[in-house]
Amino acid sequence: MKFFVDTADVAEIKDLAASGLLDGVTTNPSLIMKAGRPMLDVIKEICAIVPGPVSAETVATDHKTMLAEGRKLAKLAKNVAVKVPLTPDGLKTCKALAAEGTMVNVTLCFSAAQALLAAKAGAAFISPFVGRLDDIGQDGMHLIAEIMTIYRQYPHFETEVLVASVRHSMHVVQAAKLGAHVATVPPNVLRQLFKHALTDNGLKAFLDDWAKTGQSIL
Ligand code: G3P
Q1: What pLDDT was estimated at residue 189?
Q2: What pLDDT score does 159 carry?
Q3: Could you tell me the residue ranges of all domains in the chain?
Q4: pLDDT value at position 71?
Q5: pLDDT of amino acid 172
Q6: How far is CA 161 from CA 6, 112, 123, in A?
Q7: Burial state string for 114-126 with b = 16 or more CB within 10 A and e = fewer than 16
Q8: How many whole angstroms from 166 Cα to the centroid of ligand 1?
Q9: Do the Cβ atoms of 182 and 148 come closer than 8 Å?
Q10: 83 has catalytic annotation
Q11: Where does ligand 1 bind, in terms of residues with CB under 6 Å?
């Protein structure tokens, strides 16, 4: 399973990339707003730090302008994945960009039917938002299970399921159990994945005992 980080904070990305566990990055207009920096500069910088796919989202709602935005974003670096919304214009743009060899991440997916359309439109990634479904009392993970079942019926689909709107480590574990290709995870959740109280306590006890032996390995 690939791990992407869901942030436009370059310092966070540098720090997490050093772990060697980062396969890509996703951004969106809200994350760019939070970063408080010009989008094009931020995307270029991120692309130079992380060699994997870096999602940069279009903001137009009509096909013509969205395509122009997508082409401009795709030119920033080879590893840009252009993000488009799951609308008729978004999917039309997805098809056109995919035909030009650009990776497209179709975002704001909330149903299996939408995911089916994105695969037909040649998306490199489909982004179902699990946390936002949980927030309204629906089961986000059930959607991932449905999409995985559907995509497995059609082995020629090349679209990867990118679990988005992840809120905690159980979302990541459940997504992995279902065989989802990618989870995009906020930095704090990515750090949560390393954590277990018994690991911390166990390490402390081992090191305390080791100190009592007076030995050193090196
Ligand atoms: O980038 C898309 C997605 O991960 C957004 O998550 O937390 O705003 O629902 P959230």
Answers
A1: 97
A2: 98
A3: 2-213
A4: 98
A5: 98
A6: 15, 11, 10
A7: bbbbbbebbbbbb
A8: 7
A9: no
A10: yes
A11: 6, 26, 28, 129, 131-132, 164-165, 184
- Assign 3-class secondary structure to 74-100: HCCCCCEEEEEECCHHHHHHHHHHHHC
**CATH fold for domain 2-213:** TIM Barrel (3.20.20)
What distance in angstroms lies between residue 36's CA and the mean position of ligand 1's atoms? Answer: 17
Amino acid at 38: P
CB-based contacts of 148, cutoff 8 Å, min separation 6: 161, 178, 179, 180
- Ligand 1 atom at minimal distance to the Cα of residue 167: 7
The residue ranges of the chain whose pLDDT is under 70 are: none
Tokens for 87? 């609308």
Residue nearest atom 6 in ligand 1 by C-alpha distance? 165
Determine the Cα–Cα distance for residues 67 and 58; give it in Å rounded to an integer.
9
How many whole angstroms from 129 Cα to the centroid of ligand 1? 7
Q: What is the mean pLDDT of the chain?
A: 98
The pLDDT assigned to 10 comes to 98
Q: What is the pLDDT of residue 153?
A: 97
